[in-house]
Amino acid sequence: MAKTILIVDDSASIRQVVKIALTGAGYEVVEAVDGMDALKKLDGRKINLVISDVNMPNLDGIGFVKQLKQKSGYQFTPVIMLTTESEADKMRQGKEAGAKAWVVKPFQPAQMLAAVSKLIQP
Amino acid sequence: MPHNSPELAAALRTFAEESGELLEAMASHLRALLEGDEDMERLHALFRAAHTIKGAGGMFGLEAVVGFTHLVENLLSRLRDGHQPLTPALLELLMDCRDQMEDLLKEALDDGGAAADPALAARSDSLGARLQAALGSDGGTVANAEATTPAQPPTVVLAPVADEDVELERVEADTWHLSLRFSPGVLREGMDPISFLRYLESVGRIVHITTLVDNLPEAEVMDPLNCYFGFEIELESERDKDAIEAVFDFVRDDCQLRLLPPHSRIADYIALIQDLPEGQDRLGEMLVAANALTRQELELGLTHQRQLAGQAQVPLGEILIAEGMTHPPVVEAALDRQAQAKGRPGKDKGNESQFVRVHAEKLDELINLVGELVIAGAASHLLARGRRDRRAQEAALTVNRLVEQVRDVTLKLRMVEIGETFNRFHRVVRELGRDLGKDIALDITGAETELDKSMVEKLGDPLMHLVRNAIDHGLEPPEQRLAAGKPERGRVRLNAYHDSGGIVIEIGDDGRGLDRERILARARERGLIAEDETPADPELYALIFEPGFSTAQTVTSVSGRGVGMDVVKKTIAALRGTVEIDTVLGAGTTIRLRLPLTLAIIEGFLVRVENVPFVLPLESVRECIALSATSATDRRQYVNLRGEVLPYLRLRDLFALGGTPPRRENIVVVRHQGNRVGVVVDQLQGELQTVIKPLGRLFRGMRGLSGSSILGSGEVALILDVATLAEIATSRDHNRGGTAAQLQQGAQACSTQ
Fold it and tell me: Which of A75, B18, B252, B630 has a 20 to 30 Å separation from B316 between CA atoms?
């Protein structure tokens, strides 16, 4: 069974690009528009990897990861944060929250795939 | 090869120059090593030179050069790191390889588009096989396996993947070593170690992996959510340290990673460190800049240093080595570089900028303009003198003095040391000696003697011929030498020095010397000397420069090549030089070339006949005497000069200038190759320094003239060729150089040039 990746970003185009790349590589993709939406989308389903933006309305990436790590069944789910170079502080916060991997925006689909494949393989 | 853009073509030219210099440097280091100067720095320099040629050559896609140089670099790297002792045989091999690199570069850079010379490629292959064999003589089975397949020159940094069974041999030497210890909590972070190891394959090939289970506790205390594994990994990768480390960037906080580069990289790191620009003098920064250390490792190392600071001051270098982040030689190289940067503030830095590359054409133009300036200065000086205006005269004098200084400095700009030209003969001597079965040493002295660049270029061929001649005809075969009680090893000597405003170049050998009797016999045979005549040595020996004059009993492959001795003499004469021969039968021959320092300017002596100005080269002028009607025997044309016979000739007659001689004529005594002759003129006008202009076409066929010059007054003066004048005067052959009409036309041609 294909592995499932949850992509959380308020930008539709970013979700689109990432989805194309990931489905092309053989992953199932679940989309969420912000942290709140993401928590809802979990719905007890098996998620192998989460890719989350930091700055989002309603519930931002840091808050989302913190809550994710509290949820049973998702403590050990790896998280890739989408950060920018200037967000060193956010990155530190994200790491503290439990998101150990990151991809710096703007990124090429190939960079995203490389980061993903360090953590899981399809 | 394609060089479709002018930028690339320009870069390629720079590369051609750069590689030429590097090859020269390699040659001189190799020679020094061969002569027993076993300075490690020479090996470093050799390696760097090969490394740069390979690297830059790769940029231009010169694959033949890169592939071959790569092998040379490998050997040099092993020698430098002390993995293999430097033997004379290896030095010889390296010499040959250097020569081959030179030839390969020449072929690659020659954009004539000529097809690759198969002989050259074949030589690359055979030398490559020898290099491989040399590498293998100490390095196990790998090289042997490759030595048998020289047809496949490696063109990449890492050796091509070989057969399975030799692979294991390679493991130790040429792989990255990764030492990986995951922290127990890594799984809880959602990180799967296996996933990273899989991803590692994307940057290289995992040759070997050892899983360490030492930390695995007893089953009852083991937490299945913990990771207890460590891994030792041998990775074959062409990527740099940063790229490999980046594989683990997401688990950097949850693992200990030690990344030790392959041994083959050490050389690269050291070279990079040595090539670092000035200004970086912090060890860690240097290592990071050379890619020998990643920034993460540096920070880790610095943290450790701070932690230890309480107990003792531990140098960062030691920590980095202890942590297994880098190799000791790399740290040493960085420390050396650091010491260099600190020890020589400014000096080294300045070195680069002390030289400016200027196109030779620009220099020629400058020299030409300075020549014009000299003439214009002389004109204004003449004018000021005529004015009887003290202030104008003084101003003109100052200007003239400055012009002279400018001229001297300008001429110096084009002066180059003759050493580079001399050094080229090491190869000639070695190769020729080998071909002819003679053991020959080349001694070079006076390499620092400077002369005009244009002169140096024209001297190449005649020197080549003279050296070949010395080796082929001068030096005896070893058995003859031994029989004659001489050392088996022959010596060829190149020497240069400045002498009275000119340069003297000597080409000597300690061979058999010229055989006077044989030359005399041959000269008589050819009718150059009458049967009853016995000329003095210098005259007789000068005959070897006659066209077709050869006393060689056997013709070898060598004597057929290059220019003949008569061409040597012509070339030297065209450079306003002379050739002398010193020889002792059985002890050797020295050929001495005497040349002016520059072709652009002549120190002359101005004379006039029928008010036509002529210039004699000052270095040939000995004295001036009055020609009284009584002392001359006009029919025989010689005078009694202090008891000696001085033949003379009249320029008035030679050039058919007509008119009547004044009551009092003068003789300028000039000397050419030991001969003194008189040149009869109307007026003596003294010394002058003047710029030489080539003769117009009309004058080409005329005897007795070598050039022209424009005087301050604007007049065209003809520069006399003393050699021809001496010949005419002594042979009484007044075969007129030309008619007055021709002379007039020629002068006009010159002045309109």
Answer: B252
Give the Cβ contact number of residue B447 at 10 Å: 15
For the beta sheet containing A101-105, the strands, ordered from the edge strand earlier in sequence to the opposite edge, are A28-32, A4-8, A49-53, A79-84, A101-105
What is the band of A17 on the pLDDT scale with cuts at 50, 70, 90?
Answer: confident
Confidence of residue B165 (pLDDT cuts 50, 70, 90): very low
The pLDDT of residue B736: 42
In whole angstroms, give the CA distance from residue B263 to residue B245.
18
The interaxial angle of helices A12-24 and A109-119, nearest 10 deg, is: 60
Give residues with Cβ within 8 angstroms of B727, minimum separation 6: B733
Give the count of Cβ contacts less than 8 A between chain A and B.
46
Nearest CA in chain B to A99: B189
Among the partner residues A76, A98, A118, nearest to B187 by beta-carbon distance: A76
Q: Is A102 on the interface with B (CB under 8 A)?
A: yes
Which of B192, B248, B255 to probe by mutation at the A interface, max A CB count within 10 Å? Answer: B192
CA distances from B676 to B204, B327, B620, B647 (A): 82, 74, 10, 8
Quick one: tokens of B307?
Answer: 């932690």
Q: Does the beta carbon of A117 lie under 8 angstroms from any beta carbon of chain B?
A: yes
The pLDDT > 90 percentage for chain B reads: 5
Task: Identify which of B190, B250, B251 has the shortest CB distance to residue A76.
Answer: B190
Most confident listed range (B152-161, B289-298, B628-637, B645-654): B645-654
B317, two tokens: 């270098």
Question: Token pair for residue B688?
Answer: 């002058």
Q: Report how far residue B510's alpha carbon sits from residue A80's, in angstroms, rounded to the nearest whole number.
A: 81
Residues of B in contact with A100 (CB under 8 A): 189-191, 250-251, 253-254
Counting every residue, how long is chain A? 122
Compute CA B8 distance to the chain's CA centroid, rounded to the nearest angstrom. 24
Q: What's the rounded Cα separation, in Å, for the pair B78 and B89?
A: 15
Determine which of A26-40, B331-345, B535-549 has the lowest per-residue pLDDT on average.
B331-345
Q: What is the DSSP string of B23-66?
A: HHHHHHHHHHHHTT---HHHHHHHHHHHHHHHHHHHHTT-HHHH
- ipTM for the complex? 0.75
Chain A: give the shortest CA distance to residue B191, in Å.
Answer: 6
Q: pLDDT per residue over B151-164, tens digit each?
A: 333 333 333 333 33
As given in the structure block, the two tokens for residue B448 are 């620092």
pLDDT tens per residue across span B563-604: 477 788 888 888 878 888 888 888 888 999 988 776 667 778
Count of Cβ atoms closer than 10 Å to residue B321 Cβ: 17
pLDDT of residue A107: 75
A44–chain B nearest CA distance, Å: 17
Using DSSP, state whether B668 is helix, strand or coil. strand
pLDDT band at B505 (very low <50, low <70, confident <90, very high): very high
**Distance from B182 to chain A by nearest Cα, in Å?**
14
What average pLDDT score do residues B333-351 get?
58
Distance of CA B461 to the CA centre of its chain: 15
A71 CB within 8 Å of a chain B CB:
no
Residue B733: band (very low, low, confident or very high) from pLDDT cuts 50, 70, 90: very low
Residue where the block lists tokens 């994307």: B202
A16 contact B CB<8A: no
Spatial separation of the C-alpha atoms in residues B474 and B467, rounded to whole Å: 9
- Residue B2 contacts residue B9 (beta carbons within 8 Å): no
Adjacent-strand bridge partners of B705: B720
What per-residue confidence (pLDDT) applies to B157? 33
A chain contacts of residue B202, beta-carbon cutoff 8 Å: 114, 117
pLDDT for A40-50, tens place per residue? 888 888 899 99
Selected residue with higher pLDDT from B280 and A65: A65
